[in-house]
Design a protein that fits this description.
The chain has about 230 residues and is an alpha/beta fold. The chain has five helices and nine strands, in the order αβββαββαβαβββα. Strand 1 and strand 2 form a beta hairpin. The longest helix is centred in the middle third of the chain and has 14 residues.
């Protein structure tokens, strides 16, 4: 089994240890180090501002995990990515990764990083691009649908069903793959962006996003840090 760069012991000891000194939730010095989450910049220059950070504030209220309550933009091909145990990859429309981005994404996940991938506004071209690219990055691994008994549905909140923008409530469509016995990437083709909590400049625009996205994102972050 590969030794994971972002193991639970490393995270507790270095990121949220009771005696660690560093950047606090407001970016100032002098308090405990907190978990920092990246918003990935990829392709030519694709990223998204329409993924809500409300779950970062929620996990601070509902758990012992301390997270910086905002995202930090980080290039997918950057060495800086390894400072972030958790990253969001989202956007709309078609895209293609560079070879350097593919290689760094693979190494980041192998070393223990975690990525939530989510189509903005349930964008079908984005989903098709992501599905194609992840097969380039990990051709040997097949995505799997996560069933209702998977821990990501139950780490902090129990989410067995969710309302959607339209249609009946059902189990959220989450897909992922395992590395060393742990899910390392979760993709939602419907969308975990929680755009209703982003601001007036962002909307779902007819997509069918998961209404329980904030609770699921809290669960996924907790899972990523504790498994």
């Amino acid at each position: 089994m590969n030794e994971r760069l972002f193991s639970m012991g490393l995270l507790i000891g270095l990121l949220v240890g009771p005696t660690a000194i560093g950047e606090d939730a407001d970016g100032s010095e002098g308090k405990e180090l907190v978990v920092r989450c990246a918003n990935l910049v990829y392709g030519p220059n694709k990223t998204s501002v329409c993924f809500s950070n409300a779950f970062l504030k929620q996990i601070n209220r509902d758990s012992n995990i301390e997270a910086l309550p905002r995202f930090i933009a980080v290039g997918l091909d950057s060495a800086e990515l390894y400072k972030y145990p958790f990253a969001v990859m989202t956007g709309e429309g078609d895209f293609q990764l560079t070879e350097a981005q593919r290689q760094n994404m693979r190494e980041y996940l192998i070393q223990g990083g975690f990525i939530i991938a989510s189509a903005g506004c349930s964008s079908e071209p984005w989903n098709a691009s992501f599905e194609r690219e992840i097969k380039e990055v990990f051709p040997e691994i097949k995505m799997q649908h996560l069933e209702s008994d998977h821990p990501v549905f139950h780490t902090i909140y129990d989410v067995s069903r969710s309302k959607y923008q339209s249609g009946k409530s059902h189990l959220p469509d989450l897909r992922g793959f395992e590395l060393d016995g742990k899910i390392s990437l979760i993709w939602s083709p419907d969308g975990l962006n929680d755009t209703g909590n982003v601001g007036p400049d962002c909307c779902c625009c007819g997509g069918n996003e998961i209404k329980s996205a904030k609770q699921l994102n809290v669960n996924i972050l907790a899972y990523a840090l504790t498994h």
